[in-house]
User: What shape does this take?
Amino acid sequence: MKKIFNFSFVCMMIALSSCMFGLSSCGDDKDDAEGTDGIHNGTWLVTHIKTTEDGQTLETDITPALGITYRLTLKNDSFEFYFKDEEESYTESGKWSYSDNILTLNSEDSGTEHIQVLSWTDTKLVTREEDEEDITEMTFTKQ
Assistant: This one.
């Protein structure tokens, strides 16, 4: 059981790293629309992660008992992403926008990231990101 949890944790860390740092776009970010109306504003916590790599799928519920926090706070045109586990924590901030089922996060530290939105209601946000190695779906719940 311990090995499965460690593998799960490593997969989550890889997924988060690729989510925050791996996807950058080229071009003039000033052309992107920034912010959105207040419908999606608020604090969103990741409550579930599903990662598929090499045909194997791993799903993990993120609960306070794990000691891991993924938090995305959206305000009019600004965002803050906060991550914390037993070993480290970091915060990233910048501008955000949402259009055509794409959530765009633009940070001075890691550039622009475009995240596919599978569904977004008043209380639940489900995103999907793909790269050459894996597919990651994250479920956020509004606090």
